[in-house]
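Lab notebook: predicted structure, single chain.

Context: the supervisor wants predicted structures on file for every construct in the current expression panel, including those that have not yet been purified. This is the next one on the list. No modifications to the sequence; it matches the entry in the shared construct table.
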Amino acid sequence: MVDRKEMNMKKVLLLAICLLLVGALLVGCGSGSTGGTTEKNNNSTTTSQGSTQGSNQTDLSTCQANLLAIDSAALDYKIRNSGQHPSTVEVLVPNYLDSLPVEPFGGTYSLTKDTSHGDNVKAVCSEGHTY
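Prediction complete. Output recorded below exactly as produced.
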């Protein structure tokens, strides 16, 4: 029988993969218009800014997947701890998260009260990213 933690992690992984695929579709996998400038020199073409945009979209998708994983782990923590919220993201490791997620833009993750959906906590990114 699969335990609840393993099921939640599978759901989070599937969601992260979906976010990455959507990000790749939005970026166009490097083809088409990148919003950068294009210069032609003889038979070669150089595009500036395109790879940066693709990498930023991938990093944003990673950050969003991390936020979802933290939220899922925090909810699981609350369920298993008589309605008590985790005080920090670090409390979720290793029982609810295998490791502390790394924010791809160099920021940090934390938890804040979210009363818009009842008495819950929500993962936030110091870089201001949301999902």
